[in-house]
């Protein structure tokens, strides 16, 4: 073809279709997919060219050949945007427009050889080069914060300082790693001829009705099996010894099914096994996403059900006197762990475990009833399944990263709040929010980018923790949880109350924790009604001299729901305010708040936005006021008053610091964060436990057994906004 203009416009088509094809995972070699995409792009552009040529023939007035070339190129790139690149329009078309402008300027220069055309070409190339630089640059950290990352109360020492062993250090057991499965996997030898133990397949056809159409066709072509014969494949990390050992299963989340995910939790498997816990990474790649389609959450019941079928298999092996695994497992000590959609799957499995039938189809009988003692959800979803699972009588832990651009909010706190303790067995639930942790690095094979190319080039990766640091956090908290739940080792419980006690084992980073034990007595949770002055017939609330007092539902950064209400309190001290008129929030009981001895007062506190603190007076205008900057830290006093009017006071900072808002910049372009993610932060609460002994120490005549008033006195920070929830106490054990 002798049309130079058309040949020049092929250049951006070749580049962009090549990029798209290379990163389009089908199981074929990436180079082959790139060549196929380039040929497809060229063919599409030629078809567009012929279409416009036909239009030129019909409408004789169009006779400029270069217009046809440009139109065909532009049309091809628009089609690629619609069907391929998931970039925001403004970025994609800016890049494509720049590339086309380079082509036009190059054509102009080759045609005229003028100085002006050369300067224009150079200018446009520099602009395009800068755009490419921005895409290849890792990004930046715009929110530097010198606030202390760890804080402990007066006289407190870290667990390491008092001789407690680091839970992320390997234990004394040698680890035997092997796989079990169908033995017929045609893609992976570890689940083919290399399996140590063969397992039967299971029929999931009544649980996954969406296994049809092209999703069915291409998956069965790839895997060699269908929904009626799902395999039970697992990677085992086995402590060497007689046992019996506790059993922990971990399951991955959604990812490209041909980029296998089950090998990404060896860092947890090896650690837990070395500490005497059999750990299995479960293979559910065959229900993951694929170019032929994603089940969009319809597969969540299967993800959960398969975990329970794996437990059935382990129960069978354990009870078979002739099997090498006979007696190896303590089936009374089981823990489920899951990441991403797997994190939601483990909560669903916890709900299914006690049911007689599948709730979406009663023709599927359930008979599991395993003693699942603990559930761990890592950066989970909580919206894929169309039912809200309410866990009961199980220990629970959830971890979430602030820089998770896949699951941008702490969804794991929703099942945390729904969880119910209904018996007298001591249990607990905990949450850990990790600043600068992303989604993918909790799996060692998913990598630093939570999206695949080309979308990943927009992500701001510079602020992230390293993979080793992020996995270290997971090891510390998950191992500590497992030690407590599966081995009755309570030495690590304090780190869930105050992460500062684990500072010697963690990277130098902001972390926030939630923690609640099963016998916690909640006095106020702001969920009951719209009357902000009362809780019950016997408990009332009053606010004095507050600039802001309201109860509201907390939102996520994208304006979704946290499914939690809290009280928002704002204050502004001035020199004219006396000690007796300091802003305060008072909870009063007509009866005694408690009758027996109490170990600690508990409440959840988070920093609010100083912009919420509005006033008509210039003196209380917080815009640009450093005194109202939450980065400086808020503090206030907690005052208990007994029936005789004796009071005792503890500053919140005497326990630990109220963490400032942990702001994030997910992408390299601020406007994209607003469009794709939402706000730079969302309210994150952390739990505070204030020992009653702290109050007794500060007031000798104070009687902590006959408390009538609980007050928050805002006398420590000149002005500020805090969010408070779940006020109550822990009985003395």
Automatic annotation (TrEMBL):
Record-annotated membrane-spanning stretches: 7-25, 31-52, 64-84, 90-110, 115-135
UniProt keyword Transmembrane helix present: yes
InterPro entries: AB_hydrolase_fold
Keyword tags: Membrane, Transmembrane, Transmembrane helix
Protein name per Swiss-Prot or TrEMBL: Alpha/beta hydrolase
Organism this protein belongs to: Maribacter aurantiacus
